[in-house]
């Protein structure tokens, strides 16, 4: 035993130890310090050693060092390659050895350099074992597999002579190492390299219909044939995709430098999105190759307004038409639409026409209206069914129809309405007369219920604000005069037809203690909305009632002014964040959500501009929060209405920033606001570029201010989007507050102390702000 043999890989490998057994001597490729040994591989002895390929390769020859008696030479050897020691599963054979020897040895032994040719064997990346056995020599002497020691003494080399301990033996394909191993893979070649199209996205396909085939390209960019190609479909929805055939379709092999196509089709089982994975097993490294598959099944999905309840209608008179909305929420056209009236009293109802009336088809994502009128034959209750046959599952869609015939109504007022109500401002509620004041009328009056619910509202229609549509009384109007001729502007925030509960904002041209707002209702001929809701808010840039579902269709928060400054919820948003507010609904921002406002330029107030902001706030925690702002983060120019953390509860603040807090006018309320209760807060700025132009009111009272900065000298304009409950540009400074009735004034509007006090008195207690009388008829 003379030395340790050098393993010289053309590809990188790892060195793994094996375990000895009788007649089989596995050994470690790691150098054994101070040891000189060799392992016999003739006469029933065999030895196995490991190597690791980091990528695929084709093995052609193995070279190793062997000790024989001086003058003898190795003539043959049995080789095998497997995945464990002495395993022959990947290849085995008897090879004629070609050997050369180092004639300089004088100790009775020669070191032979033995070359064994292996028929081309392609291996993928991994760890394998080379086993040598049954070696023969020309003179029949023993043959031993040579091993180097750690320092390279007696190191074998494929040329004659020795190599030094530090010599670099790994000289091909960028692999490095030293000469202290057991064999060399001679001139291996790179194996196949497979790539596959990363994804196939099928076009929308009607459910239960097979799409045209799409092709994923399988390419072999390596230098050896790609073998054992087996495509399959796995993943979430494999049954909705199928392998198909086509031009240049892949077989089981693919020549080096070539490509082929794997064809697939998509047959969606329903109107939904489907995904799967094309998996291609092969002989290349990284097998299997994969490609993501996706497609959407299409189908119409029809829904119809569940019911139409007609107001009480005089016998023999035809009601205003009511619309049942037919919606197609699917992703394919709804066809063969045919409406009809069936049920108990079909002759008392009739289909008519109107705006956006349904035809025979309805596009995906659209809706149309089916109009129905009611003509009662007698003073009784009538029911029927609107039935709509169509191509959707569940056809026909149905809507229940109901209405009641009544005897003639009482004598009307000169303006044509049957009933009058008055809302008189109570004493002490308005400090001084205000103009163009949006007053809240809030309460439940049975007269304001529909006639079907025992009330006196005969017709309802839709009021649209942004993307929010509310069913409201058509024949409930407001005037400033007792004759009912000077029509005001109003907006319904809420209306409940069953009880007459309302929240209505009415713009009073002049409002003072004792001012009377007149309401008129009970007019069967009025079937359209008699107001323009946005006209209620002439002094405001944006008004948000915060009544919408924060997780609904964007933009979720609608601007009532008609300026289109709608707000889109961002962050972690859930429907449950819509909560009871000071006035109807509110949004709980929970510290992880905010709203981005449209039309950035609308809110671009300069430091010389005056403006006001206001709203109702229920403080959730003693933390900083940008309540309404157009102030970028990181710090830049802008303005912000905020709350700042106090010693035990927050303070409200208003700031104008030229280039951050060091160039700003910034003040906070000296007193802290209590948490967990509603506060009405208004902040005003008169364009002075100083804190002197600022006022902050809490619950109608002007607060003392503490100046934080008062050195504003440059423009505060920026192009960033404003936000509710966040700094612009990030999600910084989100509060846990619940917010209701947020408003930003028009440029140049500074809310007066009397205006703020009157607003607080009106909104905090609408029941005591007005003295109310309803149900008055014309004498």
Structural commentary:
With 779 residues, this protein is an all-beta fold. Helix content is 2%, strand content 43%. The protein is built from 2 helices and 54 strands. The strands form 11 sheets. Strands 38, 40, 41, 43, 48, 49, 50 and 53 form an 8-stranded antiparallel sheet that branches. It has an 8-stranded antiparallel sheet with strand order 39-42-52-44-45-46-47-51, with no helix packed on it. Strand 45 and strand 46 form a beta hairpin. The model is unreliable at 1-37 and 148-181 (pLDDT under 50).
Give the structural class: mainly beta
Multimeric status of the protein: single chain
Helix proportion of residues, in percent? Answer: under 10%
Number of strands: 54
Give the N-to-C terminal Cα separation. 131 Å
What form results from the Cα inertia axes?
elongated
Brief characterization of the structure:
2% of the residues lie in helices and 43% in strands.
